[in-house]
Design brief:
about 20% helix; 2 helices
């Protein structure tokens, strides 16, 4: 891809934050909140929920960062060129 023009670069939004839990108006105490996050992460990263893609030439994979825990694994030939395109859609901002 070619470099962004100065005008285009000014229009790029800041990096997004993808919270695991949305803030509720009645906030929890830090200790309870951290325990909840630990419990949710322990549940979410179970092997039974894991999807590992076996890459083949021409594959195209799309996922929604709002509903997955994405972790890239270096289980491919590092000599091969890979392309990553990020698509951001307008919508409500997580709080």
């Amino acid at each position: 891809m070619r470099p962004l023009s100065e005008d285009s670069a000014r229009q790029v939004p800041p990096p997004g934050v993808h919270p695991l839990v949305r803030t509720h108006p009645e906030n929890m105490e830090d200790e309870a909140a951290l325990a909840l996050v630990a419990e949710l992460m322990e549940h979410a990263i179970q092997k039974k929920y894991e999807y590992r893609h076996q890459w083949r030439y021409g594959d195209f994979v799309i996922w929604d960062n709002r509903s997955v825990v994405h972790k890239a694994n270096p289980d491919y030939d590092m000599n091969e060129r890979r392309y990553l395109y990020r698509l951001m859609l307008k919508g409500e901002t997580p709080v």
